[in-house]
Amino acid sequence: MTSPSIPAEHRADVERLWDYHNMHHEIRPVDVGIGLGSHDLGVAKVATDLYHQRMYPRLVFTGANAPTTIDTFPRGEAVHYREYAIAHGVSADVILIDTEATNTGQNIENTRALLAANNIEARSLVLMSRPYQQRRAYATCKKLWPEVDVICASHPHSLDDYVTSIGDAKKVMDMLVGDTQRIEKYAELGFAIPQHVPDEVRAAYTRLVNAGYTSRLVQ
Question: Model-level pTM?
Answer without folding.
Answer: 0.93
